[in-house]
Structures are given as C-alpha cells and as structure tokens.
Amino acid sequence: MSRPCPCTSKRTFDQCCGPYLEGRRLPETAVLLMRSRFTAYALGRVDYLLQTTAAEKRAGLDREELASYCKAVRCVGLKIVATEAGGAGDEAGVVKFHASLQHNGKRTLHVERSTFVREEGAWRYVDGETN
User: Fold this and answer.
1) Number of structural domains, the chain?
2) 33, 52 in Cβ contact below 8 A?
3) Please, which contacts does 61-66 make with residues 24 or more away whose CB atoms are closer than 8 Å?
4) Does some domain include residue 30?
5) SS3 of 57, please?
6) Whole domain around residue 82: which residue ranges?
7) What is the mean pLDDT of residues 6-12?
8) Is residue 101 pLDDT above 90, yes or no?
9) Does a structural domain hold residue 95?
10) In a domain, 116, yes or no
11) Distance of alpha carbon 130 from alpha carbon 6, whole angstroms
12) Is 111 helix (H, G, I), strand (E, B) or coil?
C-alpha cells in the first residue's frame, strides 16, 4: 500500500499524483496539475515543476533556487477553493487554492489564484496572484 498523497486528497500517492510525477500520465485538468505541482514541491521534484511550467515562463526559473525552496519549505496541506474552466475540454483555466506551509518552524497560509493553459495538449502553470 502506498503512502498518503502529499496533496492531501485522501488518496494514496500511487492513486493520485504519483502517475503524473512519474510521467505515466498527464493531468487531465488544471486542478489535477495544481495538486501534482503541490506534491512536486513537497517531494522536491524540481524537474516536474520546470516541465509543467508554461514555456514562456520556464526560462525565467532558476533550478537551484527552486530546489532550495523545496528543501526549506514543508508542504502541510492543500485546499482547492475555486476553479474557473480548466476542465478536460478547456484550453485555459484558473485554480484558487490555499496551501498550508511551514518554513523555519513557522506555519503560513499561501493563498494563490493560479492561471493554467494547455501547451501541445498538456496543462501548464503560467503564473499566480497571491494575497
């Protein structure tokens, strides 16, 4: 039996985000990509984070900074608050979420409204607005 998925879906990693992070499946919706990216942050899967970022934004990412961030932050929980489009038949979507994080022993709530698009049939993260 697999461990619980870090995205706090109440499913096992093997039944939830595992197939996406292992490259066996593509997330069918923006929400599933959001969950798998949260899991990638939790597990330090930097290559997945880079791969699932929109091409126009990918060049601006620093792999080492991203890896350092993943090591410094503990991803405690994820709550999807709202979605706009982002379904299996859509080309774009928005996911609003609350991520419970722990950094230097202090718990914080990261609130973001993320934008996603399809590139060559696969969902990609574009950017996010935080409060």
Assistant:
1) 1
2) yes
3) none
4) yes
5) helix
6) 13-130
7) 96
8) yes
9) yes
10) yes
11) 21
12) strand
Beta bridge partners of 107: 102
Residue 1 pLDDT greater than 80, yes or no: no
User: What strands, in cross-sheet order, belong to the sheet with 106-119?
Assistant: 73-85, 92-103, 106-119, 122-130
Alpha carbons 82 and 97: distance in angstroms, whole number: 7
Asked if 79 and 98 touch (Cβ cutoff 8 Å), the reply is: yes
CATH number at residue 39: 3.10.450.50
Does the residue 102 lie in any domain? Answer: yes
Q: Which residues have C-beta within 8 Å of that of residue 1, sequence separation ≥ 6?
A: 12
Q: 128, 113 in Cβ contact below 8 A?
A: yes
Rounded to whole angstroms, the maximal C-alpha distance in the chain is 41
HSE value, Cβ hemisphere, 13 Å, CA-based, for 28: 3
pTM for the full predicted model: 0.96
**Given this model, what pLDDT does residue 2 score?**
76
